[in-house]
Target: Isomerase
Amino acid sequence: MKYVTVYHYDAFTLKPNKGNPAGLVLNGDELNNNEMQEIAYKVGFNETAFLVRSDIADFRIRYFTPGQEMNLCGHATIAMMYALKTMNLLMKKKHVTIETRVGVLDIKVDSSEDNKVVITMKQAAPQFEAFKGSKKDLANAIGICEDDLESNFPILYGSTGAWTLLVPVNNLKAFKTMKPNNSLFPTILNERSKASIHPFCFETYDSDVDMHARHFSSPFSGTIEDAVTGTASGIMGVYFARYKQGTGRESLKLIVEQGHEINKDGRVLVNVSPSECSYDVEIAGNAVYVNKFDVLLEDNEISN
Model:
């Protein structure tokens, strides 16, 4: 048996216990796969991130939900880099590379005049795939009516590192009544049964924000809802550029709000720039330290 220290940071907010909680483990090289999964299960956050050595980047980060390892996690990356910066473990570096399962990604670390640290994270290349399932069943699975779905915009699977189903909704009121039945997701998402579901709309609580969203986890993740989702916000930015903006090809700076319905409201900054074949995507945000605690590892009864 041994104890492992976990740091709790909240991402996409400056207020403790708002935004999206992430567990951070800085000594990941001392742990095996089963131990990482056990820690993530016991921590219970949507993601726990483990810092390990890399031969091709400054750092490697591995991401675990309570149920499985993920390719990429936006909020846990923002939290990890914020923690390393504020712990003086990045020295004076303003550009850092991280190795992930979707490749090596660039990180920018900026400190403003009021000493606020902003972390900007390059996303993987955007991808979209068609959803061919039942809209009625989809709406039912997240606790709304089919009439609440926005008929002028497509429902699409999207990814800038993690696949989610982007579901445009026509009114903000529907978000307050949503109640996901996550166990139904794999039977509805026939094309990508392990994807999450990400309803969003262009009506927002705050007037200076571009989109509002919620994020319902895949049942394989072992969680129900993600408070403020970085990778999903990234692909939302590309969706906005392609379908809301239309034919325009100028760069966009967007703000996504999320978490209001579960009292975890936060904001994700999304930068979308046209590239030769598609778009380059970055997400940015703050984080805040909450506390640290120890997790007792036992007999690795939790396996991958």
About this structure: The mean pLDDT is 95.
